[in-house]
Amino acid sequence: MSAALDDTSSDVYTRASSSSTSTLADLETARRNRKSEWKRRQGGQTFLDHLIVTVRGGKGGNGCVAFHREKFKPMGPPSGGNGGRGSDVYILPTPALTTLSSVPRRVHGLPGGAGQGTWQHGRNAEPTVIRVPVGTVVKELGYDDPRRAPDEWEAEDEAFGELNNEDERKAAWRERRWVHYPRWQDENVERDTFKQAERAVWREDKERRWMRRRRYLDPLWLDLSTAVENEADARERDVDAPLGVGKKEYLGHLVARGGAGGSGNPNFVSQTSRSPKFATKGREGERITLSLELKILADVGLVGMPNAGKSTLLRALTGGRAKTEVASYAFTTLNPIVGVIRVADDGTFEGELRGVKVFEETAIEEERESEKQLAEHADPPSFVLDDQERTSHSEPVVDQHPGYPFDILESFRFTISDNPGLIAGASSNIGLGHSFLRSLERSHALVYVVDLAGDAPWDELRALRDELEAYLPEMSDKSRLVVANKADLLVPEGREGHYDEEAVENAKAKLRRLEEFVKTEMVILEGGGTTGGIDETGKRRSRRTMDVIPVSAKYGQNLKKVVLSMKGYVEEARRGVL
């Protein structure tokens, strides 16, 4: 007996300790997430890429109980108007927005107007539109999700649950459904016509409740990856439509319907009841809880460890137009930043025409270097530039200028996103975790950025690939290029602009080792929907080796080859090849 009690107590202790351990782990995860969000909001940054929104459709207007009165007609017929419909709630992708910070956490539709006498119906409420950035994924939270707010029927049941007996609940239900003529409430509830109407309303409530439960079996899911504000203009006009009928403004996707308006007392006239003295109240609008997740829409996404030079690379590619924060410490970039690359027919990109020669670690240092006119810096070692690149830099560019004049030469443009640094364990939501990885899912191609001057850039590549695969299988197959940044640090400048030949040879050997690693261990498979290298049609997927390009983003060297490679990847993706 005592042994059984000991076993039971040990089992209870084990369960208690395991539950306390899981609770502590959950608290630690929540604390880490709060700290990450706090860091991302520092310095006035308001970027927000995930939000839970509670949406409520507008309440319908109440019906009216009234009787027509005019001269010589003291006992006119029932003349109460119906209530107006509550506001429907729509969600609309808007290109002008880049963050979810402007979206309110609670959205309530406007109520419909109440009916009035002399058969005046209430006015329908104007629709409510939630504007979100393009690239937002909208998901309705499931029935068993603890973050979900109660729907309209659950909220009513909670209100009735506080009442003690059945009579009180029935009285509360009638209070929510009916409008009575003054001093006629007690007599109305005893009339057969009212009881018959009450049964009809109860059956309608039961059917609406059943339909609401069925909706949880097929929750709402929207992928707002394109702007559709002008979709109404693109539709063909109905040839049978009467003249003068204008087009309706496109409001987006319907997410919550407004409540129906109440019925006025003329709707309850019958052969046995010629002057009904009751009407119905407006219905509650639908209540729904949505999860909004913004996934940055960029053609190319930069992936790299903290302080690998991604922000400097983006600034160099855009000629300093991308307002990235650059500093000599890790996690400088806390939110994704998207830049636009404009390319001419001959491969010239706008960033190299802006006259900036050094993209320093901070804006202050960049201004300091600009004051020195940027003329004292020698060219980087020869292994960074190939002969074609050196020739193109040595020849002056004629009639090419950034800004509006470049519009004449522009033949192609694409977007590139600078994302926060990825560390080991990011797939488990460590560091900025999922907040960073979400922004990479929509990119057509991924570009690894590694520090070539580091001890082992190949280990960085392996860690980056493993984290992408751990977060989303086959996500690393979208990688197309390895940018070996900070190549200028491998060979320090000597006296009179000469370089140590031994350092140059060591740098070339390190680059060859990185290329060999990429060729042997970073092979990617093209295609999607695969298992074991076989695509959906049963064919074996083709293997592809990534390119490795050494650059100096700080000095803007060898970037033309990077831009041309990215351009090719984006063209393939837009043709549906990738």
The gist of it:
The protein is built from 14 helices and 18 strands. It is of the alpha/beta class.
Chart the SSEs and their pairings.
Blueprint: H1 2-40, E1 50-56, E2 89-94, E3 106-108, E4 128-133, E5 136-140, H2 152-161, H3 166-177, E6 178-180, H4 185-188, H5 192-215, E7 221-224, H6 231-234, E8 253-256, E9 278-280, E10 287-294, E11 300-304, H7 310-318, E12 337-344, H8 363-371, H9 387-394, H10 406-409, E13 410-418, H11 433-437, E14 445-451, H12 457-471, E15 479-485, H13 501-521, E16 524-525, E17 543-544, E18 547-550, H14 559-574
Parallel strand pairs: 1-3, 2-4, 11-13, 11-14, 14-15, 15-18
Antiparallel strand pairs: 1-10, 2-8, 5-7, 5-10, 6-9, 12-13, 16-17
Mean pLDDT across all amino acids: 77
| Order of neighbouring strands in the sheet with most strands | 12-13-11-14-15-18
State the helical fraction: 25-40%
Low-confidence stretches: 1-19, 229-234, 326-331, 361-366, 385-399, 528-532
Characterize the biggest β-sheet.
6 strands, mixed
Distance between the termini: 69 Å
Radius of gyration: 33 Å
Report the total helices.
Answer: 14
Q: How would you name the oligomeric state of the polypeptide chains in this document?
A: single chain
Measured by DSSP, the beta-strand proportion falls in 15-25%
How would you classify the helix and strand content by structural class?
alpha/beta
According to DSSP, the number of beta strands is 18
Envelope shape: elongated
